[in-house]
Amino acid sequence: DGGITQSPKYLFRKEGQNVTLSCEQNLNHDAMYWYRQDPGQGLRLIYYSQIVNDFQKGDIAEGYSVSREKKESFPLTVTSAQKNPTAFYLCASSDGSTMNTEAFFGQGTRLTVV
Amino acid sequence: RKEVEQDPGPFNVPEGATVAFNCTYSNSASQSFFWYRQDCRKEPKLLMSVYSSGNEDGRFTAQLNRASQYISLLIRDSKLSDSATYLCVVKSFNKFYFGSGTKLNVKP
């Protein structure tokens, strides 16, 4: 079955550590996105990528980094510079060649700083 | 100003009720519009796309007014299983902008 896989589902990080969240898709989509969701709030865009080897900052990129070396993969690193990283992280992909296509989401990673 | 604004609710309605959600967006160049449903602690899932002519999918009807930059979702004959948060989503130049969601509680 085609879809987006995020791992791990739950992640605990000590303060000062970097952690990397995995996102893999087999939908052959060009566009991929990372969002952050805090309790009771909407999704905020961290980074997005329209094509391999290219990515752009979203609205809240500070303290995060990404790479897009393969079409299928768009990992997100939460660095120690991110002051409040505890949140629900959602990865999405979309067929960037067609205007009206929706975003498909992975099941999310819940990150907690301990 | 937020790109997409929604009434956060919650909307508490009895089973069988009709409920309407509204949403406004700020970018007049926005190209595509969607309603997503998000259950507690889960990922958002597409409920329906929204077209300028309006569209219906069973008990759900979506409307778009480009002139007013306004999107609506109507749910008829509410079921207990409709309880969730409904997210209004606008796509502009391949970026998706999400409203903060409207929470719906359907009561027996």
| N to C succession of SSEs of chain A | EEEEEEEEEEE
Shape of chain B: globular
Structural class of chain B: mainly beta
pLDDT < 50 runs, ≥5 residues of chain A: none
Helical proportion of chain B, percent range:
under 10%
Greatest chain-chain contact: A-B, 27 and 23 residues
Question: Structural class of the secondary structure composition of chain A?
Answer: mainly beta
Number of DSSP helices of chain B?
0
Number of strands of chain A: 11
Straight-line N-to-C gap of chain A: 35 Å
Structure, described:
The N and C termini of chain A lie far apart (35 Å). Chain A contains no helices and eleven strands. Chain A has strands spanning 4-7, 10-13, 19-25, 31-37, 43-51, 54-57, 64-66, 76-78, 87-94, 104-105, 109-113. Chain A is mainly beta and 114 residues long. Helices cover 0% and strands 49% of the residues of chain A. Chain B is an all-beta fold and 108 residues long. Chain B starts with a strand and ends with a strand. The mean pLDDT of chain B is 95. Chains A and B meet through strand 4, strand 5, strand 9 and strand 10 of A and strand 5, strand 9 and strand 10 of B.
Keywords:
heterodimer, A: 114 residues, seven-stranded mixed sheet, four-stranded antiparallel sheet, B: 108 residues, mainly beta, five-stranded antiparallel sheet, 11 strands, globular
List the SSEs and their pairings:
The complex is a heterodimer of chains A (114) and B (108).
Chain A: E1 4-7, E2 10-13, E3 19-25, E4 31-37, E5 43-51, E6 54-57, E7 64-66, E8 76-78, E9 87-94, E10 104-105, E11 109-113
Chain B: E1 4-6, E2 11-14, E3 19-25, E4 32-38, E5 45-50, E6 55-57, E7 60-65, E8 70-75, E9 84-92, E10 95-98, E11 102-107
Parallel strand pairs in B: 2-11
Antiparallel strand pairs in B: 1-3, 3-8, 4-5, 4-9, 6-7, 7-8, 9-10, 9-11
